[in-house]
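One thing: mind reviewing this one?
=====
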Amino acid sequence: MIAIKKRSFWRGNLGVMMLTSGLWTFGGQMTGPFWSLYVLGLGGTYFDIGLLSAVSSIVVVLPALLGGYLADTLGRKRMVYSLSFLLAANSIIYFAAPSWHWLILCIVIDAVAVGLRGPAFSALIADSTTVGNRAESYALFNIVPPLFGILSPYIIGVFMDQMGVVPAQRNAYLLLFVASTTAAALRFKLLEETLPTVKVERTSASKVLRESFSNIRLTVKVFPRQLWVLTSIGMLVGFGASVGAPFWATYATLDVIHLSNADWGLVTTVGMLVSTLVSLPFAWLADRKGRVKLVLPALLLSPVAILAFVFSRSLLQVFVVYVLVSALDSMGSAASQALFTDYSLREHRGRNNALWSMLGTAQTFSHGAMSGSLLGTAGNLLGGYLYGNVSMIYPLLIMAGSWAASGLVGLLLLREPEERAD
């Protein structure tokens, strides 16, 4: 195997990915926290919010399968920068959408691009970490990009209150296009390949698909037992998020708690700040004391925090609860990502990520983690139906229950690795 050249942290791939993801986050944090309000503003319903999320969950599966194979054959860099350009261009369709129906096209393009790029993106980050600083590396990757967008939710929330949801969000998508195109160009220019050079032969799409399935089967055969435990926990986390996460903004603003858009933007901003402040100390503990010691408390306490959000009825209550949720997200996220990497062989990481996308496994244990596959599709549709037709509280209760189940599985079965993959 050809040795991968190591560079200093900030000048290497992690530094490049943090900078470019930060640029992306600047625009993304203006659109993401209010996406469900944009759907409603374009004429959609609560069920349509779940439907759009479900389309994303089901469409992403096949591209993720192909993306895992291509990441482990063509390499990580090419997949990351080329599909980043496609995702950036898609912001223009979001900007120009005359009705919510056009968002179906946006969602499909996003899902295909993210599915193809995701395994290479995750593998590139994993390849650029070392055993001794893995959790800290993931923590820095979770800290630095959000800093670029830390004021974005509040700023766009103020504009939404002044000029309306749809006009403000259209402007935000234009900003996202500029920022993400710049990020894609920098990735093309500055990233270095982390997969050893291999000879790539000309092949047909059908052959790639057959070999993708064959390689996934091979990957499954070498899965250690603890990786299956982690996979199961991630599926429960992802399912819960797919049911409840799309409705936090509408629950907090339009429907139950009745915060202003600026208030919700402020809460989101403070949550990002808290997450930034505590991520590195938690990661330091994960690298030195073990990942599981942080993952388990995060999983077990998160259902309590979700329930506290459900029963909040004032800005102060939401503020306190969201700070707690953000701290728990930071406690679990870097440690869980490092744990997945600890159990994954370098040469299988692209295909591992593809398999997790197919199964609907969230590798980042946070309340916003979204699940792909049929599992995520079922969760999105269930959440949309329950929120719009039965009770607005039910999707969040299911989310809390699914997280509680993941914590129980982790408590009973999850163990620290005796030896970590490089």
In short: Residues 67 and 116 are 4 Å apart (CA to CA). DSSP finds 18 helices and no strands in the chain.
